[in-house]
Design goal:
mainly alpha; Serine Threonine Protein Phosphatase 5, Tetratricopeptide repeat
Length: 521
Amino acid sequence: MVLIGCGSSKPQATIDASTIVPEVVKEEKAPNPEGLRHFMDGQLLMNQGDFAMAIIEFQQALNLDPNVGAIHTAIAECYWNLGKPELSEKHLTMALKADPNDEQALQMVADQFILQKKYDAAQGPFESLHKLNPEDTRYIIALAELQKVKQNYAEAMNLYLKAFELEPERFELLETAGRFAIRVGDEKKAKNIFKDLTISNPNESHYLGLFIDLVSRLKLFDEGETLIHELNQKHGPAPERNAQLGLLLYRKGDIKQASDLLESSIEQAPKNPNYYFSLFDIYMDNQKIIKAAELGDKLIANFPEDWRGYYSRSLVFMDQKNPQAVIDLLAPVADPFQKVFSIQYLLGLSHNQLKQYPSAEKYYTHALTLRPESKNIMHSLAILYDEIDQFDKSDKIYLKLIDADSSDSQAFNNYAYSLVERNVELNRALNFAKKAIALEPENASYLDTIGWIYFKLDDLKKAKSYLEASVKIADDNAVVLEHLGDVFMKANQPLDAKEFYKRALELDSNNERLKDKVSLE
């Protein structure tokens, strides 16, 4: 929250005596000489930090000049610095009663309300200050920040635009308005704002980046291309503009030209890692895995202090289903990047895939300390605890997820599956499974879960119905095929059961349990 810089926001600040005399003159009578002496003595004591003694002097001045609001303002500042906000507010009220347009008192009361987080109360003083000084952007910005606190982002945006009109050289005001426009979903206004900022500041790459993102969302690709060509023509070609043009063309669907432009940007500015990452994303999205791997290696070699290079190279290994390579790459840099969530999470994920559960738990837990509300980590940890039969821990996580978000279908489904696999609380598991299905009725995994619960409840008709629906959506899951085989076997249809067991074994050829089921006569 913006403070306007009055004494109350700076405990050792004092009131300039030169601001007081005009107040006395406004009353068209000379100040009492003795009262003025007490006032100046009080000012001296304030400068020395002796606020208690300063109040005594100011009270003496007030006895001699009872209608001078500036004396109340000085007393209010002393009480504020002594940690007595109620008495400070009382004297500020008196000062404003004596002169409703006392700017110093208005500034102090506004700042004190802000420091006490009484944002609604601060609105009035700031509005009065703005009315008294309509061209002072400090008060407009303060009012905008109050609207931000109230989450009235549209009004905050308009106020920042108003402030920018008064100070058109302060581009940060226009940028803030643009970000509020994005926040309220007015992408066209935001696009126009960042276009203006880009034209006025052609070397500020983040303005151009935001503009390109916005024209991409709005599918106004031609407008983005035109602006970049105009900027290049006026200011000369620049690697950053070519890189942004590459991103725009990629989003437009021109992969070849996009790649060429980004490769050219890297050649012209090899020390800018952002060009590498943009090109890496294009390679990964289009399954150019070898090129992505080569670029990942270059990132690590050229920018060894940038965690994103290691992360990017790890994504290639993950795509190649090589978790051990991820561990070999990331484990040596786990400590230097111990505060990087993505590095810790990938290490946990890779160890988990190799069933190295203690190590997986270690990295998952550390990642959770970095992002305590990460659903991905909580889900991963819950599944891990299910795997190692630490059900008290997994249950606790599932319940936390469900309590935090009643639309978390994955939490409902996974908790239901955990219970049915333990063969406990089947009715409770069914209730959770029904909630998951209600949220995602076409999810093959959720259909399998509820079908498996009905199987355990001996309702073979419903079990068969849900499991067949699951297989119809996705027929490449060995577990679901085995479950359906178990239903047919329990229904005394062994030939049908064997067919599903065989299909499951084709997908999971090392599964000894399936081998036994297929070999049964």
